[in-house]
Amino acid sequence: MIEGTFFIEAQGNNKELVENSLRDLIENLKNEPTVVVKREFFDRVIKDGENFSAMVEVDLEMDDLGTYIDTAIKYGPSAIQISGPNELTVSSQEFLNIIGRIIEITKTLYERTGACFKFTKSKDRPHIGLDEEDIEVLLEDGAIRVKIVVEVNTTSRKKAVSDFLNAVHENIYINKVKTRRLKEVENGKGFTGIIGLDALIPDIRTLVDIAIKHTPVLIEIIEPENIKMTMLDLQDIGLDIAGVFFEMSCAVANARMKLF
Q1: Residue 126 confidence (pLDDT)
Q2: What is the pLDDT of residues 47-77, one digit of tens each?
Q3: Adjacent-strand bridge partners of 181
Q4: What pTM did the predictor assign?
Q5: How far apart are CA 241 and CA 184, in angstroms?
Q6: pLDDT at 253
Q7: How far is CA 245 from the centre of its chain?
Q8: pLDDT for res 41
Q9: Residues in the chain with pLDDT < 50?
């Protein structure tokens, strides 16, 4: 079980609608089968120019990690405070199932919004290759060894590899890189294919970040068998995910408004 407090905001140009939206949201939370609402506190509505804003603070008990992530995605808290447990251990397969759901939802929102992340070019050249001693030390320090495969479509194989490694290498240790062309392109120009990494990731948040920003077609955890997360890990992962999905959901809503 995961216990914590979600701080959820609402904004709009109608005071009554802002208040009602938060109250409806709490009622929806109370109807979630794997979530228990322990306490809710509605702060006063604040007027800023022509707009109104309000916040509800809600204490929750969530059955497991999957419920916690789903709740963060669905209700988009602007802040999260985890009160327990101090440490959570889940199997690598359970964690991969959650990552798979995150990727599935992300892809759907990207397709609806046409959104994508832009990556700044790093001055540091990615280092590729680890010896067995390096790998053992990283694993002993809590790193996760993963296989990550992404689809790419760009001007050349070299650019595909360079761009992807440039986007991820600052937070991971890359052991091997492989590529495979999926189809031939006209005049032999361009590269449509996949890039695979064998890498070690010291911070669990980085793996979640890669899942959201790059939507891999495959993530496989090679080692360890179980994933350990601290209270701070849980808090940061939930908030990172909530923030990204809230922004993309707003983009979907704005796109719909333009149709009318």
Answers
A1: 78
A2: 888 889 999 999 999 999 999 999 999 998 9
A3: 193
A4: 0.85
A5: 36
A6: 53
A7: 8
A8: 95
A9: 256-260
Q: Where are the alpha helices (DSSP H) in 46-186?
A: 65-75, 92-113, 132-140, 157-168
245 token code pair: 């999905």
Measured between alpha carbons, how far is 155 from 117 in angstroms, rounded to an integer? Answer: 18
H or E element at residue 36 = strand 35-42
For residue 28, the surrounding DSSP H or E stretch is helix 15-30
Q: Which one, of 105, 108, 111, 144, lies nearest residue 222 by Cα?
A: 144
Q: Which two tokens stand for residue 74?
A: 């669905």
Looking at residue 190, its pLDDT comes to 79
- Distance separating alpha carbons of residues 197 and 200, to the nearest angstrom: 9
Write the DSSP string, 87-110.
Answer: EEEEEHHHHHHHHHHHHHHHHHHH
CA distance 102 to 96: 10
| Per-residue CA distances from 149 to 99, 128, 134, 183, 194 (Å) | 14, 16, 22, 16, 7
What structural domains does the chain harbor? 2-84 (3.30.70), 91-226 (3.30.70)
Residue 105 is predicted with a pLDDT of 86
DSSP bridge partners of 76: none
